Amino acid sequence: MTQVLDIYAEIAELDHCILTREERAETLRRLEAARAEAEPPLRPLHMLAPPEPIDVPLATVPDGPPRRFTWRRATHEVARVEGPERVAMEWWRTEEGALTRDYFRVEDEAGRRFWLYRDGLYGECVDDEGKPARPKWFMHGLFA
Question: Which of 11, 19, 51, 118 is surrounded by the most beta carbons within 10 Å?
Fold first, then answer.
C-alpha cells in the first residue's frame, strides 16, 4: 500500500510538469502494478479437488460466515472475513441437487487464509427424509 501512496505522491508532484505520453503511461503502469501487489488475491493459489468438508458449529447470522470451523481435526477461530460471493445455478435451470454456493475468504487468528463455501442456504437444504437440514460447509482452497 505504501508503494501505491508513493506513486500517487509522485504523480501529484509531476502533475505540474509536462510529461510525454510515454512517461505518463509508464507512471500509470507502475501505479497499476503497485496496486495489484497491494490487493489480496480473489482466488486461492492452492485449490482442493475435491473440496473437503469442514465442521461449522455456528455462523454469525444464518446466511453469514462462520465464527469458527474445524478442518482436518484443527479448529480455526475466524478473525476476518470477506464475502459472501454467491455462485448460483442459472435461473432458468431447475435441476435437482444444484444448490446455491456462498464463498467466503476467511482469515483465522494465526493469519492463515482459506476459501470456504456453504453449499446451500438455510431453509433450502433437506436431509434424505425430506426434513429441513443445515447447509454443509467445505474448504475449497488455501491462500498463500
Answer: 118
